[in-house]
Amino acid sequence: MSQRDKDENLDQGVIDGFGHEWATFDYAENESAEALDAQFAAYFAPLDLSQFNPSTSIAGDFGAGSGRWSSRLAPYFSLVYALEPSDGASSVLKRKFTGNPKVVVLQETVGVNSIPVASLDLAMSLGVLHHIPDTALAIKDVSRSIKPGGVFLCYLYYNFENKPTYYKLIFIGVNIARRIISASPQPIKRLSATLIAAVVYWPLARIAKLLIKLGRNTSNLPLHHYADMPFVMLANDALDRFGTSLEQRFSKAQITDMLRSADFDLTTLSFSELEPFWTFVINKKK
Fold first, then answer.
1. Which is the CATH superfamily of the domain at 3-159+249-284?
2. How many Å separate Cα 193 from the centre of its chain?
3. Which of 37, 46, 113, 233 maximizes the CB count within 10 A of its CB?
Protein backbone atom coordinates (compact mmCIF):
# COMPACT_ATOMS: atom_id res chain seq x y z
CA MET A 1 0.00 0.00 0.00
CA SER A 2 1.37 3.42 -0.98
CA GLN A 3 1.79 6.24 1.51
CA ARG A 4 -1.06 8.13 -0.19
CA ASP A 5 -3.36 5.08 0.19
CA LYS A 6 -2.43 4.86 3.87
CA ASP A 7 -3.06 8.57 4.36
CA GLU A 8 -6.42 8.42 2.61
CA ASN A 9 -7.47 5.50 4.81
CA LEU A 10 -6.54 7.59 7.85
CA ASP A 11 -8.34 10.54 6.32
CA GLN A 12 -11.70 8.84 5.88
CA GLY A 13 -12.89 9.53 9.40
CA VAL A 14 -11.83 13.16 9.03
CA ILE A 15 -13.56 13.38 5.64
CA ASP A 16 -16.78 11.92 7.04
CA GLY A 17 -16.64 14.33 9.97
CA PHE A 18 -16.38 17.31 7.66
CA GLY A 19 -19.22 15.91 5.58
CA HIS A 20 -21.45 16.00 8.66
CA GLU A 21 -20.18 19.49 9.52
CA TRP A 22 -20.95 21.04 6.15
CA ALA A 23 -24.30 19.30 5.92
CA THR A 24 -25.14 20.99 9.24
CA PHE A 25 -23.61 24.38 8.39
CA ASP A 26 -24.48 24.70 4.72
CA TYR A 27 -24.87 28.50 4.76
CA ALA A 28 -27.87 28.22 2.46
CA GLU A 29 -29.48 31.27 4.08
CA ASN A 30 -28.13 34.81 3.97
CA GLU A 31 -28.02 35.70 7.67
CA SER A 32 -24.23 35.27 7.72
CA ALA A 33 -23.49 36.79 4.31
CA GLU A 34 -21.96 40.00 5.63
CA ALA A 35 -19.69 38.17 8.09
CA LEU A 36 -18.67 35.67 5.40
CA ASP A 37 -17.84 38.54 3.05
CA ALA A 38 -15.60 40.04 5.74
CA GLN A 39 -13.87 36.71 6.37
CA PHE A 40 -13.38 36.19 2.63
CA ALA A 41 -11.79 39.65 2.42
CA ALA A 42 -9.43 38.78 5.31
CA TYR A 43 -8.31 35.56 3.63
CA PHE A 44 -7.76 37.35 0.33
CA ALA A 45 -6.02 40.41 1.81
CA PRO A 46 -2.61 39.38 0.36
CA LEU A 47 -4.07 38.79 -3.13
CA ASP A 48 -5.59 41.16 -5.69
CA LEU A 49 -8.39 39.24 -7.40
CA SER A 50 -8.62 41.85 -10.15
CA GLN A 51 -5.46 40.33 -11.67
CA PHE A 52 -7.55 37.44 -12.95
CA ASN A 53 -9.60 37.50 -16.16
CA PRO A 54 -13.23 36.52 -15.50
CA SER A 55 -13.51 35.36 -19.10
CA THR A 56 -10.52 33.01 -19.18
CA SER A 57 -9.02 32.41 -15.73
CA ILE A 58 -9.65 29.14 -13.89
CA ALA A 59 -9.59 28.50 -10.13
CA GLY A 60 -9.68 25.46 -7.87
CA ASP A 61 -11.08 25.36 -4.34
CA PHE A 62 -9.38 22.40 -2.64
CA GLY A 63 -11.66 21.31 0.20
CA ALA A 64 -14.67 23.39 -0.81
CA GLY A 65 -16.90 22.38 2.11
CA SER A 66 -20.25 24.13 1.77
CA GLY A 67 -19.05 26.27 -1.15
CA ARG A 68 -19.04 29.52 0.82
CA TRP A 69 -15.69 30.52 -0.75
CA SER A 70 -16.28 28.97 -4.19
CA SER A 71 -19.39 31.11 -4.59
CA ARG A 72 -17.38 34.24 -3.81
CA LEU A 73 -14.62 33.26 -6.22
CA ALA A 74 -16.96 32.62 -9.15
CA PRO A 75 -17.41 36.26 -10.26
CA TYR A 76 -13.65 36.57 -10.84
CA PHE A 77 -13.19 33.40 -12.92
CA SER A 78 -14.60 31.66 -15.96
CA LEU A 79 -14.55 28.34 -14.10
CA VAL A 80 -14.14 27.22 -10.49
CA TYR A 81 -13.49 23.60 -9.54
CA ALA A 82 -15.07 22.94 -6.14
CA LEU A 83 -13.17 19.88 -4.91
CA GLU A 84 -14.70 18.10 -1.91
CA PRO A 85 -14.31 14.40 -1.00
CA SER A 86 -17.12 13.97 1.57
CA ASP A 87 -20.61 12.78 0.71
CA GLY A 88 -22.39 15.28 2.96
CA ALA A 89 -20.57 18.37 1.74
CA SER A 90 -20.65 17.26 -1.91
CA SER A 91 -24.43 16.99 -1.67
CA VAL A 92 -24.56 20.55 -0.34
CA LEU A 93 -22.31 21.76 -3.17
CA LYS A 94 -24.37 20.05 -5.85
CA ARG A 95 -27.57 21.62 -4.52
CA LYS A 96 -25.98 25.03 -4.19
CA PHE A 97 -24.40 25.13 -7.65
CA THR A 98 -27.04 23.33 -9.70
CA GLY A 99 -27.54 25.40 -12.81
CA ASN A 100 -24.33 27.39 -12.30
CA PRO A 101 -22.05 26.51 -15.24
CA LYS A 102 -19.12 28.39 -13.70
CA VAL A 103 -18.75 25.97 -10.76
CA VAL A 104 -17.86 22.32 -11.33
CA VAL A 105 -18.30 20.11 -8.25
CA LEU A 106 -15.79 17.26 -7.99
CA GLN A 107 -16.24 14.67 -5.24
CA GLU A 108 -12.57 13.83 -5.24
CA THR A 109 -9.52 14.14 -3.00
CA VAL A 110 -6.61 16.55 -3.06
CA GLY A 111 -4.28 13.69 -3.94
CA VAL A 112 -6.38 12.03 -6.63
CA ASN A 113 -8.58 14.29 -8.74
CA SER A 114 -9.49 15.13 -12.32
CA ILE A 115 -8.39 18.77 -12.37
CA PRO A 116 -6.09 19.01 -15.41
CA VAL A 117 -2.38 19.34 -14.70
CA ALA A 118 -1.03 22.92 -14.93
CA SER A 119 -4.51 24.34 -15.63
CA LEU A 120 -5.24 26.64 -12.69
CA ASP A 121 -4.57 30.35 -12.52
CA LEU A 122 -5.46 30.18 -8.82
CA ALA A 123 -5.52 27.27 -6.39
CA MET A 124 -7.07 27.97 -3.01
CA SER A 125 -7.19 25.84 0.10
CA LEU A 126 -8.44 27.45 3.29
CA GLY A 127 -8.20 25.45 6.50
CA VAL A 128 -7.96 22.04 4.84
CA LEU A 129 -4.42 20.79 4.25
CA HIS A 130 -3.48 20.73 7.96
CA HIS A 131 -6.12 17.99 8.34
CA ILE A 132 -4.28 15.73 5.85
CA PRO A 133 -1.61 13.44 7.40
CA ASP A 134 1.09 14.42 4.91
CA THR A 135 0.53 18.15 4.41
CA ALA A 136 3.76 18.53 2.42
CA LEU A 137 2.57 15.90 -0.06
CA ALA A 138 -0.83 17.59 -0.27
CA ILE A 139 0.84 20.90 -1.16
CA LYS A 140 2.74 19.11 -3.95
CA ASP A 141 -0.56 17.65 -5.18
CA VAL A 142 -2.12 21.11 -5.32
CA SER A 143 0.98 22.50 -7.03
CA ARG A 144 0.64 19.95 -9.82
CA SER A 145 -2.67 21.55 -10.89
CA ILE A 146 -1.34 25.13 -10.96
CA LYS A 147 0.02 26.53 -14.22
CA PRO A 148 3.52 28.08 -14.26
CA GLY A 149 3.26 31.54 -12.73
CA GLY A 150 -0.15 30.69 -11.25
CA VAL A 151 -1.11 31.57 -7.69
CA PHE A 152 -1.62 29.47 -4.57
CA LEU A 153 -3.60 30.96 -1.66
CA CYS A 154 -3.62 28.83 1.46
CA TYR A 155 -4.49 28.94 5.14
CA LEU A 156 -2.76 26.52 7.52
CA TYR A 157 -3.08 26.43 11.31
CA TYR A 158 -0.19 28.31 12.89
CA ASN A 159 1.87 27.11 15.86
CA PHE A 160 1.41 30.32 17.94
CA GLU A 161 4.97 31.41 17.17
CA ASN A 162 3.84 35.05 17.22
CA LYS A 163 1.79 34.75 20.43
CA PRO A 164 2.70 34.91 24.14
CA THR A 165 3.41 31.80 26.18
CA TYR A 166 -0.06 31.66 27.72
CA TYR A 167 -1.52 31.04 24.25
CA LYS A 168 0.55 27.88 23.99
CA LEU A 169 -0.48 26.78 27.49
CA ILE A 170 -4.15 27.30 26.64
CA PHE A 171 -3.64 25.24 23.50
CA ILE A 172 -2.48 22.24 25.55
CA GLY A 173 -5.82 22.13 27.35
CA VAL A 174 -7.79 22.84 24.18
CA ASN A 175 -6.00 20.05 22.36
CA ILE A 176 -6.84 17.56 25.10
CA ALA A 177 -10.50 18.57 24.82
CA ARG A 178 -10.32 18.21 21.02
CA ARG A 179 -8.96 14.67 21.27
CA ILE A 180 -11.80 13.65 23.61
CA ILE A 181 -14.60 15.38 21.69
CA SER A 182 -13.40 14.30 18.25
CA ALA A 183 -13.53 10.65 19.33
CA SER A 184 -17.21 10.99 20.33
CA PRO A 185 -20.27 10.12 18.24
CA GLN A 186 -21.37 12.83 15.82
CA PRO A 187 -24.36 14.09 17.90
CA ILE A 188 -22.05 14.52 20.91
CA LYS A 189 -19.56 16.43 18.77
CA ARG A 190 -22.26 18.82 17.58
CA LEU A 191 -23.66 19.35 21.08
CA SER A 192 -20.20 19.86 22.57
CA ALA A 193 -19.26 22.35 19.86
CA THR A 194 -22.47 24.32 20.36
CA LEU A 195 -21.88 24.47 24.11
CA ILE A 196 -18.27 25.58 23.62
CA ALA A 197 -19.42 28.25 21.18
CA ALA A 198 -21.99 29.47 23.71
CA VAL A 199 -19.87 29.51 26.87
CA VAL A 200 -16.38 30.22 25.46
CA TYR A 201 -16.41 31.61 21.91
CA TRP A 202 -19.39 33.96 22.22
CA PRO A 203 -18.37 35.63 25.54
CA LEU A 204 -14.75 36.14 24.45
CA ALA A 205 -15.85 37.41 21.05
CA ARG A 206 -18.22 39.93 22.58
CA ILE A 207 -15.64 41.05 25.14
CA ALA A 208 -13.29 41.65 22.21
CA LYS A 209 -15.99 43.63 20.41
CA LEU A 210 -16.49 45.84 23.47
CA LEU A 211 -12.75 46.38 23.92
CA ILE A 212 -12.36 47.30 20.25
CA LYS A 213 -15.10 49.92 20.64
CA LEU A 214 -13.18 51.29 23.63
CA GLY A 215 -10.05 51.55 21.51
CA ARG A 216 -8.17 48.74 23.24
CA ASN A 217 -5.72 46.38 21.56
CA THR A 218 -7.24 42.88 21.50
CA SER A 219 -4.59 41.10 19.40
CA ASN A 220 -3.56 38.84 22.29
CA LEU A 221 -7.08 38.11 23.52
CA PRO A 222 -8.03 34.57 22.46
CA LEU A 223 -10.80 34.42 19.85
CA HIS A 224 -10.77 38.20 19.35
CA HIS A 225 -11.11 37.78 15.58
CA TYR A 226 -14.65 36.45 16.12
CA ALA A 227 -15.77 39.83 17.48
CA ASP A 228 -18.22 40.57 14.68
CA MET A 229 -19.22 37.05 13.67
CA PRO A 230 -22.74 35.69 14.22
CA PHE A 231 -23.27 32.72 16.52
CA VAL A 232 -23.76 30.25 13.66
CA MET A 233 -20.19 30.89 12.52
CA LEU A 234 -18.88 30.48 16.05
CA ALA A 235 -20.66 27.13 16.36
CA ASN A 236 -19.36 26.08 12.93
CA ASP A 237 -15.76 26.93 13.80
CA ALA A 238 -16.05 25.28 17.21
CA LEU A 239 -17.18 22.06 15.50
CA ASP A 240 -14.37 22.43 12.98
CA ARG A 241 -11.85 22.94 15.80
CA PHE A 242 -13.00 20.33 18.32
CA GLY A 243 -14.69 17.76 16.09
CA THR A 244 -11.66 16.88 13.97
CA SER A 245 -9.42 14.01 15.02
CA LEU A 246 -6.41 15.14 12.98
CA GLU A 247 -4.85 18.59 12.88
CA GLN A 248 -1.34 19.87 12.46
CA ARG A 249 0.19 23.29 13.13
CA PHE A 250 3.06 24.92 11.33
CA SER A 251 5.57 27.72 11.66
CA LYS A 252 6.40 30.12 8.83
CA ALA A 253 9.71 28.30 8.39
CA GLN A 254 8.03 24.90 8.07
CA ILE A 255 5.53 26.24 5.54
CA THR A 256 8.36 27.81 3.56
CA ASP A 257 10.22 24.48 3.45
CA MET A 258 7.12 22.66 2.17
CA LEU A 259 6.59 25.28 -0.54
CA ARG A 260 10.25 25.08 -1.56
CA SER A 261 9.83 21.35 -2.16
CA ALA A 262 6.65 21.84 -4.18
CA ASP A 263 8.11 23.96 -7.02
CA PHE A 264 6.92 27.36 -5.82
CA ASP A 265 8.82 30.62 -6.25
CA LEU A 266 9.80 31.63 -2.72
CA THR A 267 10.59 35.18 -3.82
CA THR A 268 6.82 35.68 -4.26
CA LEU A 269 5.83 34.24 -0.86
CA SER A 270 3.79 36.62 1.29
CA PHE A 271 2.27 35.84 4.68
CA SER A 272 -0.79 37.84 5.65
CA GLU A 273 -0.53 40.03 8.74
CA LEU A 274 -4.27 39.58 9.32
CA GLU A 275 -5.81 36.66 11.15
CA PRO A 276 -6.39 33.82 10.67
CA PHE A 277 -2.73 32.77 10.75
CA TRP A 278 -1.05 31.52 8.66
CA THR A 279 -2.68 32.67 5.46
CA PHE A 280 -0.17 33.04 2.64
CA VAL A 281 0.03 33.57 -1.11
CA ILE A 282 2.75 32.40 -3.49
CA ASN A 283 3.32 31.89 -7.22
CA LYS A 284 4.28 28.68 -8.97
CA LYS A 285 7.68 28.80 -10.64
CA LYS A 286 7.52 29.81 -14.30
1. Vaccinia Virus protein VP39 (3.40.50.150)
2. 18
3. 233
